[in-house]
Fold MOSC domain-containing protein.
Amino acid sequence: MTWQVEALCAGRRQSFRGDTLSAIAKLALDGPVAITRLGVAGDEQADPVHHGGPDMAVHLYPRDHHAFWRDQIGDHELLDNPGAFGSNLSVRGITEGDVLLGSRYRLGSALIEVCQPRQPCWKIEHRFGTKKMVKTILASGRCGWFYRVIEEGTAQAGDMLRLEHEGLPGWTMARLFEALWGTSEPTDPELLREITQLPPLADKLRGKIMVRLDA
């Protein structure tokens, strides 16, 4: 299975709210771009405690979701930007229900592996100047996900994102997000314990779940 990459995006740290910095504003890059174990070359993180690192190297927020958000918040100018939600990859035709934990994809010459869904934060609402977007993400499961980089390489707009290895059967990003942060079902401690045993899961997220279970 393959999907065309419409854009690769990166952002620089910049003033965001008061003294707070953020690099959530990602812009499309021209030409070949290096994909390293820490992500897309030129992409920065202003809060290394909560963002970035090998298990948050590459973020994909489905471009298909932009239409959903137009229905929710109107024709906001940011929705024309492929990196509006902090995404490094702009791809259509693939969403959280299609993507399995541990699936590996060829991105240009790089090989990337799905390792966790994205938990939304207040910066999305501040960026769009619109309240209740986080609540909508939690209820709808339109979260996006992160890849770690297995093999470094280069990629550019127009390349194909190609599935090379299926991940863990049944463990979609949609299911994981709902189990961890979703709103339609009560939290299931046994399911959370099962999730902590999934080998491809990001280690930092695994640790957070274990702390949550011990609380």
Notes: The chain is about 25% helix and 25% strand. The chain has a mean pLDDT of 95.
